Predict the structure.
Amino acid sequence: MKAIILAGGSGTRLQPFTHTTQKQLLPVANRPVLEYVVENLQSAGVEKIAFVIGGDHPQKIQDHFGSGDKFNIEITYINQGEPHGLADAVRCAQDFVGTDPFLVYFGDTLIAPDIIQTVVNEFDPSGFSGYLPLQNVSEPSRFGIVEFEDERLVQVHEKPADPPSTLAYMGMVAFTPSVFEHINKISESDRGELELTDAIDSLVQNESVQWKSFQGMWVDVGTPPDLIKANKIMLEKMKTSIDGEVNLKEKNKQGIRVGKNSIVNDNVDIIAPVSIGRNVSISGNATIGPYVAVGDGCRINNANIKQSVLLNDADIDYSGTIKESIIGSEVVIEESDNQRRLIVGSDSTLTI
Protein backbone atom coordinates (compact mmCIF):
# COMPACT_ATOMS: atom_id res chain seq x y z
CA MET A 1 0.00 0.00 0.00
CA LYS A 2 1.03 3.60 -0.62
CA ALA A 3 0.60 6.53 1.76
CA ILE A 4 0.31 10.29 1.32
CA ILE A 5 1.55 12.31 4.28
CA LEU A 6 0.17 15.84 4.35
CA ALA A 7 3.12 17.87 5.62
CA GLY A 8 2.46 21.44 4.53
CA GLY A 9 0.93 24.34 6.42
CA SER A 10 2.53 27.36 8.03
CA GLY A 11 2.11 26.15 11.61
CA THR A 12 0.84 29.50 12.91
CA ARG A 13 -0.50 27.90 16.11
CA LEU A 14 3.01 26.68 16.93
CA GLN A 15 4.78 29.98 16.45
CA PRO A 16 7.41 31.10 17.35
CA PHE A 17 8.95 27.64 16.84
CA THR A 18 7.72 27.34 13.26
CA HIS A 19 9.56 30.52 12.32
CA THR A 20 12.65 28.32 11.97
CA THR A 21 11.36 24.83 11.10
CA GLN A 22 8.37 22.99 9.67
CA LYS A 23 5.85 22.10 12.39
CA GLN A 24 5.94 18.38 11.59
CA LEU A 25 9.65 18.33 12.45
CA LEU A 26 9.21 19.64 15.98
CA PRO A 27 10.45 17.05 18.48
CA VAL A 28 8.38 14.78 20.70
CA ALA A 29 10.51 12.81 23.18
CA ASN A 30 13.51 14.11 21.22
CA ARG A 31 12.37 12.80 17.83
CA PRO A 32 10.56 14.70 15.07
CA VAL A 33 6.84 13.93 14.88
CA LEU A 34 7.27 12.78 11.28
CA GLU A 35 9.81 10.11 12.23
CA TYR A 36 7.17 8.32 14.29
CA VAL A 37 4.72 8.64 11.40
CA VAL A 38 7.10 7.21 8.80
CA GLU A 39 8.26 4.34 11.01
CA ASN A 40 4.71 3.38 11.97
CA LEU A 41 3.55 3.38 8.35
CA GLN A 42 6.54 1.30 7.29
CA SER A 43 5.88 -1.19 10.10
CA ALA A 44 2.25 -1.48 8.98
CA GLY A 45 3.31 -2.58 5.50
CA VAL A 46 3.30 0.70 3.59
CA GLU A 47 5.98 0.47 0.89
CA LYS A 48 5.92 3.92 -0.71
CA ILE A 49 5.31 7.36 0.81
CA ALA A 50 4.69 10.74 -0.76
CA PHE A 51 5.16 13.85 1.35
CA VAL A 52 2.93 16.67 0.14
CA ILE A 53 4.96 19.63 1.33
CA GLY A 54 4.47 23.37 1.47
CA GLY A 55 4.50 26.08 4.09
CA ASP A 56 7.55 28.12 5.03
CA HIS A 57 10.23 25.39 5.37
CA PRO A 58 9.33 22.49 3.02
CA GLN A 59 12.95 21.78 2.09
CA LYS A 60 13.75 20.86 5.69
CA ILE A 61 11.51 17.80 5.44
CA GLN A 62 13.27 16.66 2.28
CA ASP A 63 16.67 17.34 3.84
CA HIS A 64 15.77 15.27 6.91
CA PHE A 65 14.31 12.18 5.19
CA GLY A 66 16.11 12.15 1.86
CA SER A 67 15.22 9.16 -0.30
CA GLY A 68 13.91 7.19 2.70
CA ASP A 69 16.77 4.67 2.68
CA LYS A 70 17.37 4.91 6.42
CA PHE A 71 13.73 3.98 7.00
CA ASN A 72 13.71 1.23 4.34
CA ILE A 73 10.90 2.96 2.50
CA GLU A 74 10.70 4.83 -0.80
CA ILE A 75 9.85 8.54 -0.42
CA THR A 76 8.56 10.97 -3.04
CA TYR A 77 8.17 14.72 -2.49
CA ILE A 78 5.32 16.73 -4.00
CA ASN A 79 5.19 20.50 -3.53
CA GLN A 80 1.60 21.68 -3.21
CA GLY A 81 2.46 25.27 -4.12
CA GLU A 82 -0.19 27.78 -3.09
CA PRO A 83 -2.28 25.92 -0.49
CA HIS A 84 -5.99 25.43 -1.22
CA GLY A 85 -6.96 22.99 1.52
CA LEU A 86 -6.35 19.36 2.45
CA ALA A 87 -8.41 17.94 -0.40
CA ASP A 88 -6.28 19.93 -2.83
CA ALA A 89 -3.15 18.56 -1.14
CA VAL A 90 -4.42 15.02 -1.68
CA ARG A 91 -5.25 15.78 -5.32
CA CYS A 92 -1.64 16.88 -5.88
CA ALA A 93 -0.60 13.26 -5.31
CA GLN A 94 -2.94 11.69 -7.88
CA ASP A 95 -0.11 10.72 -10.25
CA PHE A 96 1.79 9.16 -7.34
CA VAL A 97 -1.26 7.09 -6.35
CA GLY A 98 -2.04 5.83 -9.84
CA THR A 99 -4.50 2.94 -9.59
CA ASP A 100 -3.46 1.76 -6.10
CA PRO A 101 -5.32 1.99 -2.78
CA PHE A 102 -3.66 4.42 -0.41
CA LEU A 103 -3.66 6.05 3.02
CA VAL A 104 -3.90 9.77 3.67
CA TYR A 105 -2.14 10.66 6.92
CA PHE A 106 -2.06 14.10 8.57
CA GLY A 107 1.62 14.76 9.23
CA ASP A 108 1.12 16.64 12.51
CA THR A 109 -0.78 13.71 14.05
CA LEU A 110 0.33 10.75 16.14
CA ILE A 111 -1.82 7.62 15.95
CA ALA A 112 -1.24 4.33 17.76
CA PRO A 113 0.65 1.87 15.51
CA ASP A 114 -1.91 -0.89 16.08
CA ILE A 115 -4.67 1.36 14.69
CA ILE A 116 -2.63 2.03 11.55
CA GLN A 117 -1.95 -1.70 11.19
CA THR A 118 -5.65 -2.54 11.55
CA VAL A 119 -6.68 -0.07 8.85
CA VAL A 120 -4.05 -1.43 6.45
CA ASN A 121 -5.05 -5.04 7.16
CA GLU A 122 -8.83 -4.56 7.04
CA PHE A 123 -9.30 -2.13 4.15
CA ASP A 124 -10.95 -4.00 1.27
CA PRO A 125 -10.51 -1.90 -1.89
CA SER A 126 -12.29 -4.53 -3.98
CA GLY A 127 -15.56 -3.89 -2.18
CA PHE A 128 -15.19 -0.43 -0.63
CA SER A 129 -13.93 3.00 -1.69
CA GLY A 130 -12.71 4.11 1.71
CA TYR A 131 -12.07 3.20 5.34
CA LEU A 132 -12.73 5.70 8.15
CA PRO A 133 -11.13 5.01 11.53
CA LEU A 134 -13.32 6.78 14.11
CA GLN A 135 -12.90 7.83 17.71
CA ASN A 136 -15.12 9.51 20.28
CA VAL A 137 -14.07 13.08 21.05
CA SER A 138 -15.04 15.44 23.87
CA GLU A 139 -15.34 18.52 21.64
CA PRO A 140 -16.98 17.30 18.43
CA SER A 141 -17.44 20.81 17.01
CA ARG A 142 -13.68 20.88 16.41
CA PHE A 143 -13.59 17.80 14.16
CA GLY A 144 -15.02 16.08 11.12
CA ILE A 145 -17.98 14.25 12.66
CA VAL A 146 -19.88 11.28 11.22
CA GLU A 147 -23.63 10.84 11.23
CA PHE A 148 -25.46 7.50 11.35
CA GLU A 149 -28.99 6.36 10.56
CA ASP A 150 -29.88 2.91 11.90
CA GLU A 151 -26.16 2.18 12.35
CA ARG A 152 -25.51 3.08 8.73
CA LEU A 153 -22.92 5.78 7.99
CA VAL A 154 -24.76 8.43 5.97
CA GLN A 155 -22.91 11.75 6.23
CA VAL A 156 -19.74 13.50 7.41
CA HIS A 157 -19.85 17.04 8.81
CA GLU A 158 -16.94 19.49 9.04
CA LYS A 159 -16.77 21.04 12.55
CA PRO A 160 -20.56 21.08 13.02
CA ALA A 161 -22.14 23.59 15.41
CA ASP A 162 -24.75 20.96 16.31
CA PRO A 163 -22.86 17.64 16.09
CA PRO A 164 -24.97 14.57 15.21
CA SER A 165 -22.56 12.34 17.16
CA THR A 166 -19.28 12.46 19.07
CA LEU A 167 -17.46 10.18 16.61
CA ALA A 168 -14.77 11.95 14.59
CA TYR A 169 -12.72 10.52 11.76
CA MET A 170 -9.11 10.31 12.83
CA GLY A 171 -6.10 11.90 11.18
CA MET A 172 -5.70 8.98 8.79
CA VAL A 173 -8.11 7.69 6.12
CA ALA A 174 -7.81 4.92 3.51
CA PHE A 175 -9.07 5.45 -0.05
CA THR A 176 -9.21 4.01 -3.51
CA PRO A 177 -8.43 6.40 -6.39
CA SER A 178 -12.16 7.06 -6.83
CA VAL A 179 -11.84 9.72 -4.13
CA PHE A 180 -10.25 12.01 -6.74
CA GLU A 181 -13.56 12.14 -8.61
CA HIS A 182 -15.21 13.43 -5.45
CA ILE A 183 -12.46 15.99 -4.82
CA ASN A 184 -13.05 17.32 -8.31
CA LYS A 185 -16.78 17.72 -7.58
CA ILE A 186 -16.59 19.72 -4.35
CA SER A 187 -16.55 23.50 -4.09
CA GLU A 188 -14.42 25.75 -1.93
CA SER A 189 -15.61 26.26 1.62
CA ASP A 190 -16.21 29.62 3.29
CA ARG A 191 -12.49 29.54 4.13
CA GLY A 192 -11.68 29.40 0.42
CA GLU A 193 -10.34 25.86 0.70
CA LEU A 194 -11.20 22.45 -0.67
CA GLU A 195 -12.08 20.58 2.51
CA LEU A 196 -11.15 16.91 2.72
CA THR A 197 -14.24 16.36 4.88
CA ASP A 198 -16.44 17.47 1.96
CA ALA A 199 -14.77 14.95 -0.34
CA ILE A 200 -15.20 12.20 2.27
CA ASP A 201 -18.86 13.17 2.69
CA SER A 202 -19.40 12.87 -1.07
CA LEU A 203 -17.70 9.47 -1.03
CA VAL A 204 -19.87 8.27 1.88
CA GLN A 205 -23.10 9.38 0.19
CA ASN A 206 -22.30 7.82 -3.18
CA GLU A 207 -20.12 4.77 -2.55
CA SER A 208 -19.50 2.07 0.05
CA VAL A 209 -17.17 3.04 2.89
CA GLN A 210 -15.86 0.89 5.73
CA TRP A 211 -15.60 2.30 9.23
CA LYS A 212 -14.54 1.21 12.68
CA SER A 213 -14.44 2.89 16.08
CA PHE A 214 -11.10 2.75 17.89
CA GLN A 215 -9.67 3.55 21.27
CA GLY A 216 -6.00 4.35 21.70
CA MET A 217 -3.57 7.13 20.98
CA TRP A 218 -4.64 9.89 18.62
CA VAL A 219 -3.16 13.30 19.27
CA ASP A 220 -2.95 16.31 16.99
CA VAL A 221 0.38 18.08 17.57
CA GLY A 222 -0.88 21.49 16.48
CA THR A 223 -0.42 23.80 19.48
CA PRO A 224 2.14 24.18 22.30
CA PRO A 225 -0.12 22.35 24.81
CA ASP A 226 -0.59 19.56 22.24
CA LEU A 227 3.18 19.24 21.84
CA ILE A 228 3.63 18.97 25.61
CA LYS A 229 0.84 16.36 25.77
CA ALA A 230 2.33 14.32 22.92
CA ASN A 231 5.75 14.53 24.56
CA LYS A 232 4.29 13.03 27.74
CA ILE A 233 2.60 10.19 25.85
CA MET A 234 5.70 9.23 23.88
CA LEU A 235 7.99 9.46 26.91
CA GLU A 236 5.77 6.92 28.66
CA LYS A 237 6.37 4.52 25.75
CA MET A 238 10.12 5.12 25.59
CA LYS A 239 12.61 2.34 26.28
CA THR A 240 15.38 2.87 28.84
CA SER A 241 18.77 3.62 27.24
CA ILE A 242 21.82 5.05 29.01
CA ASP A 243 24.69 5.99 26.68
CA GLY A 244 26.01 8.99 28.58
CA GLU A 245 27.65 9.43 32.00
CA VAL A 246 24.87 9.22 34.59
CA ASN A 247 25.50 8.59 38.27
CA LEU A 248 22.13 7.20 39.30
CA LYS A 249 21.25 4.11 41.27
CA GLU A 250 20.21 1.28 38.97
CA LYS A 251 16.61 1.31 40.23
CA ASN A 252 16.32 4.98 39.27
CA LYS A 253 17.38 4.49 35.63
CA GLN A 254 14.16 2.90 34.41
CA GLY A 255 12.30 5.18 32.02
CA ILE A 256 15.35 7.33 31.30
CA ARG A 257 17.16 7.76 27.99
CA VAL A 258 20.50 9.55 27.82
CA GLY A 259 22.39 10.16 24.59
CA LYS A 260 26.10 9.86 23.86
CA ASN A 261 28.58 12.29 25.42
CA SER A 262 26.01 13.62 27.89
CA ILE A 263 26.93 14.14 31.53
CA VAL A 264 24.49 14.20 34.46
CA ASN A 265 26.34 15.14 37.66
CA ASP A 266 25.97 13.46 41.07
CA ASN A 267 23.65 16.02 42.69
CA VAL A 268 21.15 16.02 39.84
CA ASP A 269 17.82 14.29 40.44
CA ILE A 270 16.20 12.64 37.41
CA ILE A 271 12.52 11.69 37.76
CA ALA A 272 11.41 9.36 34.95
CA PRO A 273 10.30 9.43 32.26
CA VAL A 274 12.98 11.72 30.85
CA SER A 275 14.77 11.80 27.50
CA ILE A 276 18.16 13.52 27.36
CA GLY A 277 19.83 14.03 24.00
CA ARG A 278 23.50 13.96 23.03
CA ASN A 279 26.22 16.30 24.32
CA VAL A 280 24.06 17.54 27.19
CA SER A 281 25.44 18.82 30.50
CA ILE A 282 23.23 18.87 33.62
CA SER A 283 24.82 20.09 36.83
CA GLY A 284 24.25 21.73 40.22
CA ASN A 285 21.16 20.83 42.19
CA ALA A 286 18.97 20.44 39.12
CA THR A 287 15.86 18.28 39.13
CA ILE A 288 14.72 17.05 35.72
CA GLY A 289 11.35 15.38 35.29
CA PRO A 290 8.94 13.88 35.12
CA TYR A 291 7.94 14.15 31.45
CA VAL A 292 10.88 16.20 30.18
CA ALA A 293 12.70 15.96 26.85
CA VAL A 294 16.08 17.70 26.71
CA GLY A 295 17.43 18.25 23.21
CA ASP A 296 21.00 17.80 21.99
CA GLY A 297 23.65 20.20 23.24
CA CYS A 298 21.62 21.67 26.11
CA ARG A 299 23.28 22.97 29.27
CA ILE A 300 21.26 23.02 32.49
CA ASN A 301 22.45 24.22 35.88
CA ASN A 302 20.30 24.07 39.07
CA ALA A 303 16.88 24.38 37.40
CA ASN A 304 13.82 22.34 38.38
CA ILE A 305 12.24 21.36 35.05
CA LYS A 306 9.12 19.23 34.63
CA GLN A 307 6.57 18.44 31.91
CA SER A 308 8.54 20.44 29.36
CA VAL A 309 10.33 20.26 26.01
CA LEU A 310 13.78 21.79 25.48
CA LEU A 311 14.93 22.11 21.88
CA ASN A 312 18.59 21.76 20.93
CA ASP A 313 21.31 23.93 22.51
CA ALA A 314 19.17 25.64 25.15
CA ASP A 315 21.26 27.10 27.99
CA ILE A 316 19.51 27.34 31.37
CA ASP A 317 21.32 28.66 34.45
CA TYR A 318 18.40 29.15 36.74
CA SER A 319 17.45 28.12 40.28
CA GLY A 320 13.68 28.34 39.82
CA THR A 321 11.07 25.98 38.38
CA ILE A 322 10.14 25.64 34.71
CA LYS A 323 6.89 23.71 34.20
CA GLU A 324 4.72 22.84 31.17
CA SER A 325 7.01 24.85 28.92
CA ILE A 326 8.65 24.73 25.51
CA ILE A 327 12.12 26.24 25.26
CA GLY A 328 13.37 26.94 21.75
CA SER A 329 16.78 26.11 20.33
CA GLU A 330 19.73 28.23 21.49
CA VAL A 331 17.59 29.99 24.09
CA VAL A 332 19.43 31.36 27.13
CA ILE A 333 17.56 31.59 30.46
CA GLU A 334 19.36 33.19 33.37
CA GLU A 335 18.89 33.33 37.13
CA SER A 336 15.60 33.69 39.02
CA ASP A 337 13.96 32.06 42.02
CA ASN A 338 10.36 31.92 40.78
CA GLN A 339 8.28 29.24 39.03
CA ARG A 340 7.68 30.03 35.36
CA ARG A 341 5.60 28.68 32.50
CA LEU A 342 7.39 29.63 29.30
CA ILE A 343 6.97 29.48 25.53
CA VAL A 344 10.32 30.80 24.26
CA GLY A 345 11.33 30.85 20.59
CA SER A 346 14.77 30.21 19.14
CA ASP A 347 17.78 32.44 19.74
CA SER A 348 16.20 34.29 22.69
CA THR A 349 17.83 35.40 25.95
CA LEU A 350 15.76 35.75 29.14
CA THR A 351 16.80 37.12 32.50
CA ILE A 352 13.88 36.34 34.81
In short: The CA atoms of residues 110 and 219 lie 5 Å apart.
